[in-house]
């Protein structure tokens, strides 16, 4: 895990909701199409564990994506993510409405994004995180850059950062070791 400065640990400790972009964060950003034109996406199982752990510790997770696809819909269902906004053009407007509904302040939000469409949100939340291979401008405006590249465990690393700000990670992972953890939707 990347070294976390104390100022970032403080921001992470305040987080009540983590919002993920998809392409370039939960995937490596590659677009693959089958012979019939169906979109194929590759997700990292480690990210699923991280997202489920966040939910187990009462940290709300959400996905706001500019794109919509059947593979993404299936992944969201598998993880039990209830705050899902595909095909979003104005991510800040959607997030603002969600924060109002959940009574969450922008300082209590962590946003994970990788491209310029995410900057409007990243500049307004308490903690902004970018994958190692995010667009250079996004990296410059992020509080933290992960060791992981998009689609290669970014969400798991973010979960570790948030949880480590609250407890020893060994303690946090006790829940992931329980047999019923694999059956959890969130």
Automatic annotation (TrEMBL):
Residue numbers binding Mg(2+): 21, 114
Binding site for substrate: 23
Organism annotation: Thalassolituus oleivorans MIL-1
Keyword Magnesium: yes
SUPFAM superfamilies tied to this protein: HAD-like (SSF56784)
Function field: Catalyzes the hydrolysis of 3-deoxy-D-manno-octulosonate 8-phosphate (KDO 8-P) to 3-deoxy-D-manno-octulosonate (KDO) and inorganic phosphate.
Cofactor(s) annotated in UniProt: Mg(2+)
UniProt keywords, alphabetically: Hydrolase, Lipopolysaccharide biosynthesis, Magnesium, Metal-binding
Native organism taxonomy: Bacteria, Pseudomonadati, Pseudomonadota, Gammaproteobacteria, Oceanospirillales
E.C. number(s) listed in UniProt: 3.1.3.45
NCBIfam families referenced in this protein's UniProt entry, alphabetically: HAD-SF-IIIA, KdsC-phosphatas
Protein name per the record: 3-deoxy-D-manno-octulosonate 8-phosphate phosphatase KdsC
GO term, biological process aspect, one: lipopolysaccharide biosynthetic process
Record-linked InterPro entries: CMP-NeuNAc_synthase, HAD-like_sf, HAD-SF_hydro_IIIA, HAD_sf, KdsC_fam
């Amino acid at each position: 895990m990347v070294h976390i400065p104390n100022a970032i640990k403080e921001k992470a400790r305040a987080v009540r909701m983590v919002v993920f972009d998809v392409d370039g964060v939960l995937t490596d950003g590659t677009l693959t199409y089958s012979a019939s034109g169906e979109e194929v996406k590759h997700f990292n199982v480690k990210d699923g564990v991280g997202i489920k752990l966040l939910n187990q510790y009462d940290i709300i997770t959400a996905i706001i994506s500019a794109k919509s696809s059947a593979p993404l819909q299936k992944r969201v269902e598998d993880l039990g993510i209830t705050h899902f906004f595909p095909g979003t053009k104005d991510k800040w407007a959607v997030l603002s409405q969600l924060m109002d509904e959940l009574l969450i302040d922008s300082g209590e939000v962590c946003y994970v994004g990788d491209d310029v469409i995410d900057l409007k949100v990243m500049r307004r939340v308490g903690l902004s995180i970018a994958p190692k291979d995010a667009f250079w401008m996004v990296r410059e405006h992020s509080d933290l850059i992960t060791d992981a590249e998009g689609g290669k465990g970014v969400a798991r690393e973010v979960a570790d950062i948030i949880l480590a700000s609250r407890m020893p990670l060994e303690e946090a992972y006790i829940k992931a070791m329980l047999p019923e953890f694999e059956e959890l939707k969130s």
